[in-house]
Input
Amino acid sequence: MIPTKINGQVLVSRETWNEAMDAVGDYYKDDYYITDFDYGGGYYRIVMSKNIGWNGQIIRYGKDFPQEAIKEGWDKGYHITNLLHDGSDWIVIMSGVPGCLSQQWFTRTGWVDFKDEISRIWNEDMVLTKVACRLNPAPNVYCGVASKMNISQGQKYNFFPGGTPKDIMALCVEGNKITDIYDFEGGVVAITTTQSGWSKQVLLTGPNWEGNVKTIKEYWDKGYNVTTMCYYNNMWYIIVSY
Output
């Protein structure tokens, strides 16, 4: 889940999750929240955003999927805003999001069954706000988070074998904007959503994180913000939105 407005961002990059959490804690003091993150090339890369209208944030992680912790978060008024399996642990970010009315999560070990669940939540007037997958150990586990928002939104689910940037950005037509991008077996998946709150998007790609940071800062100066990113096939795919 990404916010519809952002006024200020910072990037956190650390080799271990504990180190990353120490840095995140310092930024929490200045009202920054985690709005996206991924693990790749031996590092956690975290995007934190300011003045987004969220109210608080909690982080839960462990070897097993933290379903009890998620329920406790829901009971306290938080919603899942980010989800990741880093090859070892499930990491779940929950935030106070005023525009989110309700949520559900679902897991499947078969891809066909998982796509059927996506169709089901769309039929229930919900949107897919986060997807993650655990590839090891077998069997694969696909996890989706469905949210009911206070505005009506339409979505499409798009898979690109080999991660083709030109084709990915061709999705952004007729009001559709990419609201989640993640690595999948043999390609990149992009979810497009209408009524996203963003009018322009650019896809940045590159294997070198320091080079990507330089380019991100150039887009910050133009009024863009990082809204979603993933690491696939030794390459970072970063969506900046305006």
Q: What stands out?
A: Residues 9-241 form one domain.
